[in-house]
Amino acid sequence: MKQFCMSILLGIGVCMSLCAFAQSTDLVNWPAQADPRLIGDLVAQRFVASPHNSFKPPAPPKNITYPEVCAWYGALKYAEVSNDQKLLTQLTQRFMPLFDTEKHLVPRPWHVDFSVFGTVPLEIYLQTKNKKCYTMGMRFANAQWSIPIDSPQVVKDGYQKFLDKGLTWQTRYWIDDMYMITMIQSKAFQVTGDQHYIDRAAHEMVVYLDTIQKENGLFYHAPDAPFFWGRGNGWMAAGMSELLSSLKKDNPNRPKILAAYRKMITSLKKYQRPDGLWGQLIDKPESWVETSGSAMFTYAIIMGIRQGWLDTEEYTPIARKAWIALTGYINKDGDISNVCEGTNRKNDYQYYLDRKQKTGDMHGQAPILWCVYALLKR
């Protein structure tokens, strides 16, 4: 009889525990399948085992591309927050051949999508103090504000107009720029303490916000592609989060960036779907669920809660629901599905709906790791 009662009590305890998970509104207690450490281990090790540029069709990679950089960076931040020295060693060892046997894979820093590569060696330097990584990373950060000397004069003249305004010559007014530029400049500030790196990133962000943010806080893919594409907006949300995390409170551009961030997150709250995620086209409920943009939004919201930019009571349930939903798209191998393929701008609604949905694409792997870092950071 006593054993029977104990079984009943244990059963009640399990049910109560499951109910607590279901009803919980915090960012600490998770059902097993959504445990950030479990997800972090799974996705980070998937990255370690992946060949360079594995999201592309089988072909020798020409250079390391930005989705791999973003996933690499996410894995490094997970290693840091989890104090996983083995993972840090694995991620560092993956990088070292780029100084010799794989140096042909190092991109030239002549484009925003290539310049963000410098974020990885700078993060490795922060965690290991490897001077070679510092030198390489700073070369990329400095190159964003230095016109390539081998550029034709007519090209230099076109670039100079941006430098004269305090902007990088790589300025395009494309939404993903505001992750690619702010990441490398923020990281350069973190490793050097030199204020001008973060100041110029903040100035760049304000100019972009003034130029391309819409009244509802969101961003068109491009002026000639008037659609609120999910991942494109994700780059902006994540970029503002990264910049605000490093920006001092007395920076004159900070209030404007923070207001723009909050305006965007308020709009994202409105468009969050009942399942917790967001669509390929944010404001079009008929568009399919897209996980890379959803993960970027989730990361930005978690960061806002952690940093005090957002009301905890209002936004924690939103972040929690999104994170649990995202983990449902991750398979046993650590690959997330429903990731939009690489997408150029096009003034065609159906074009966005018809984009292929990929599994394991690093555009999606990366922000999952960012979310893990944000959830575990205290």
From TrEMBL:
One of its GO terms (biological process) is carbohydrate metabolic process. GO terms for molecular function: hydrolase activity. It comes from the Bacteria. Keywords: Hydrolase, Signal. Residues 1-22 form the signal peptide. Pfam families: Glyco_hydro_88. PANTHER family: UNSATURATED RHAMNOGALACTURONAN HYDROLASE (EUROFUNG) (PTHR33886:SF8). This is Glycoside hydrolase family 88 protein. It comes from Sphingobacterium paramultivorum.
